[in-house]
Design brief:
With about 280 residues, this protein is an alpha+beta fold. Helix content is about 35%, strand content about 30%. It folds into two domains: about 140 residues, Gcn5-related N-acetyltransferase (GNAT) (Aminopeptidase), CATH 3.40.630.30; about 140 residues, 3-Layer(aba) Sandwich (Aminopeptidase). Strands 1-2-3-4-5-7-6 form a seven-stranded mixed sheet, sandwiched between helices. Strands 8-9-10-11-12-14-13 form a seven-stranded mixed sheet. Strand 4, helix 3 and strand 5 form a beta-alpha-beta unit.
Length: about 280
Amino acid sequence: MTGVAVREARPEDALACATILNTWIDATDWMPRVHPADDVERHYRDVVFQKREVWVTGDPVDGYLALDVEGDEITSLYAAKPGNGIGKTLVDHAKSRYGNLTLWTFEANHGARRFYVREGFHEAERSAGDNEEGLPDIRFVWARASIRRAVPEDVPVISRIVNDWVDRTPWNTRKVAPEVMTDQIRTAMPDRDMYLIGDPAVGYLSLNPETNLVGAIYVDQPGQGFGKALLDRAKRGRDYLQLWTHEPNVDAQKFYAREGFKVVERNPEGADGLPELRLEWRA
């Protein structure tokens, strides 16, 4: 479908969006109704349209997409008449605004699953029903920048990413020369799963596959979703990850907390003289 206009939702669109969802629930035989229709309408008016970014198509509204306040999770995507291109138009709009997107969809929603795969999303994890409906669901992720396995020829660019981070981080003093860092990365590569994101590369992650220890994750442009995309790649096919982060790195701690990591240990000395925290993630 071409020529579909996307606009920012207005408060008066809340009822139309809630009606689209209520109609879908009533028409879907495997979907239980957890909340009465008027509660859904109230939730859209008082919560969704107050705390999320909502975009709609049509006047009257015939489709909508809602994102959480972090701007990278699609919490709702519905069209009054699926199959007419409205869903793709809304997803393309979200992609144009954010470098990384994630969402949950029910395992039973085969049409939605096929749609997200066609749109470049890949499966990141599953739950047995950790939601209000108690239905198995799947988390899909999309990143604008592609992720690939690093090869020996990538060592200089990996070293550049790490060294640039060291140089621009005021609380972290340089412990080794840049050329030593390069040698350390080259030596570790055969025993690590290393990934790069972007072309040219803008981020890097190193993982010990035997211990599931994320030994390094660095990005040139924080806040663009690249770190999350790399971490999602590390989570794929695993039910456990661990990592150490410097205690002064408050932004990293907030990021890991959002991604489901919990602090389990503190080392006041740290491997490089700075206090560190060990965090764990379990699917």
